[in-house]
């Protein structure tokens, strides 16, 4: 049952990296989705079955809960709590409760992660940890009631997302704002990759993250110059020059990048929103809260139900989405703890060999985009996979003319895979050489952005190093290969 549920919830990346005989688990996300599907099935069966059947279904559901607990059992042990003043956050919770927020969570601070939320009582699978009234959600519908919208709705085809950003920049300084308490609880600096200084960017040079951050910065700078000082000139009463600075604009950008959520409102419209209080929840690759984002039409509130149990005093995690470390550093300012299955390195390979012989290639070998991730995530470390994805290996075998069939001799298989492994090393050895090991003495005295940049670079090095080690080990153990034909 679990194996079938895993397949139902596999995404494209999991399909790409799964081997032919791989039955999972494929990722924490996939396992949570699969077990929750079965949990909900047991709930329905318990409501409609006879007494004898109920006993069996209850035993199954109890076992599912045990497995759900095991999915993220390492998360809480990795986070060290610390004492810190959180008056602003407490005020936010009281403000939220006054406006109808229902919560089974409280504020806590953690070393290396900042603020988070812990369960004030034990919360079970399917129970709601947090409930936010729709009236507190900052969305396009709220924007339409503001003077910012009235002034800009016909201005240069400006988007609602940009207007929301401008509204936030301005509302932060509005002492009579309904959301004054919310804005006061937000940090002065979000410390995302968008705020990286010259030293941090220099540490990232040559990585994909460097390109991602530079492109994002250039886009935001161009956007700011397109808006200002034009808006200050055309609407001086709404957009004051002392408020509409580059620093305030960047603060609003980082706010929306790091705190926004996609929510289906009661109107049925999918909108990018800010959800007060919910933004205090930290991300995890094995979160407690996985599926959220639709306002309940009956209660007109956004509910955050648990996909795995959370005990009293345990930090409650939210999923920010299926993102690689580069995206999380750029727009959120952190790397997640634990193995992130979405930390992949895309490969720019020539697919002409596939295209020329497309009729003879399978679906897996006709892939035009290939990628790798840490081989430690694979359960197929030796021949014929070496911890690498089968679509990539099939592509390289086709490009090198090293295809396998029933007539291929064992000697040819060994020779073909020697060529394959040496080709892989010719790709990844130079990549590894471009990422020298970090001097730990440099890290100790470094600023927050340099430390984060070095952490990301270390992660990239670890992924590439695992591939080099796997291929080198396979070449050294070549005499012990056994005949196995790939289909």
UniProtKB/TrEMBL annotation:
<protein>
    <recommendedName>
        <fullName>SET domain-containing protein</fullName>
    </recommendedName>
</protein>
<feature type="domain" description="SET">
    <location>
        <begin position="103"/>
        <end position="321"/>
    </location>
</feature>
<dbReference type="InterPro" id="IPR001214">
    <property type="entry name" value="SET_dom"/>
</dbReference>
<dbReference type="InterPro" id="IPR050600">
    <property type="entry name" value="SETD3_SETD6_MTase"/>
</dbReference>
<dbReference type="InterPro" id="IPR046341">
    <property type="entry name" value="SET_dom_sf"/>
</dbReference>
